[in-house]
């Protein structure tokens, strides 16, 4: 049964690839205003679960709701419009756009990743000015203003991660999904990324993230859900997860 303040609730979600059951989640909740982490071995189904609930993949079964609205089977752009977004890695096409254009694309929904700047050209001028103003605010927030007119392809790994977050925030989401936000980021920028994630949470944005660095997970998570072979095998506060025998056995002990 969902707690009163759950922002995302998933029930009986399964996804099979041929004979492999990649996701078989009985029940998973994200509480409003928390940083909730998904941990577990490679191949445990964490990214597949993200793809399913964000509308980028279709499960074999299951229902899930966001902010009290049933969003099962809804396409990604509709889910994003309701306020639940995930970050996306820069594709080759996006590397040839400027930093500002990349962030502005976040406003035209989560299809921009595949369409390039074309959708920006269909905006009304007034709307475009508004979108640009918001994008510039976000560049400022993530200390990327000096990269505004540079091609995104010239950015460092850490700057790209910041850009991906800025783009996701264009729709003013209430839940942000981050799949390995620290991957490929040097230690100096890791701290800054963490501070940004915590600041978002402190402003009331809910966060669900997948991350492998256990120091990071233990220091920023309010709640941790451990996956193994597609299932949730344990969940709890960091101190309880750290010492949970099933988690140690399936993941931490290796
Ligand atoms: P994680 O993110 O926890 O490392 P994934 O969700 O990426 O795990 O993968 C879960 C399992 O599903 C893995 O065994 C993976 O090989 C498989 N899988 C993921 N996507 C596909 C796909 N599109 N086709 C076939 N198998 C897939
Ligand atoms: Mg993954």
UniProtKB/TrEMBL annotation:
Domain ABC transporter: 8-254
Entry's Gene Ontology molecular function annotations: ATP binding; ATP hydrolysis activity
The keyword Metal-binding belongs to this UniProt entry's keyword annotation: no
Highest taxon in the source lineage: Bacteria
Keyword ATP-binding listed: yes
Keywords carried by this UniProt record: ATP-binding, Nucleotide-binding, Transport
GO cellular component: plasma membrane
Protein name (record): Amino acid/amide ABC transporter ATP-binding protein 1 (HAAT family)
Source organism per UniProt: Ornithinicoccus hortensis
Span of the entire protein shown here: 51 to 304 of 331
């Amino acid at each position: 049964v969902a707690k009163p303040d759950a922002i995302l609730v998933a029930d009986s979600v399964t996804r099979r690839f041929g004979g492999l059951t990649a996701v078989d989640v009985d029940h998973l909740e994200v509480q409003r205003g928390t940083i909730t982490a998904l941990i577990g071995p490679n191949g445990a189904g964490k990214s597949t679960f993200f793809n399913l609930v964000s509308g980028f993949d279709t499960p074999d079964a299951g229902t899930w709701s966001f902010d009290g609205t049933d969003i099962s089977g809804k396409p990604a752009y509709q889910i994003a419009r309701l306020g639940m977004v995930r970050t996306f890695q820069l594709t080759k096409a996006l590397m040839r756009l400027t930093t500002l254009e990349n962030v502005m694309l976040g406003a035209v929904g989560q299809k921009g990743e595949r369409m390039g700047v074309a959708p920006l050209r269909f905006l009304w001028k007034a709307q475009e000015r508004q979108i640009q103003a918001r994008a510039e605010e976000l560049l400022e927030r993530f200390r990327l203003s000096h990269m505004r007119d540079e091609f995104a392809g010239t950015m460092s790994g850490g700057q790209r991660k910041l850009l991906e977050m800025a783009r996701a925030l264009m729709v003013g989401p209430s839940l942000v999904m981050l799949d390995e936000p620290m991957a490929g980021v040097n230690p100096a920028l890791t701290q800054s990324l963490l501070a940004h994630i915590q600041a978002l949470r402190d402003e009331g944005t809910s966060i669900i993230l997948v991350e492998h660095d256990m120091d990071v997970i233990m220091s920023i998570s309010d709640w941790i859900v451990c996956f193994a072979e597609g299932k949730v095998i344990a969940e709890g506060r960091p101190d309880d997860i750290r010492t949970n025998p099933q988690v140690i056995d399936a993941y931490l002990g290796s």
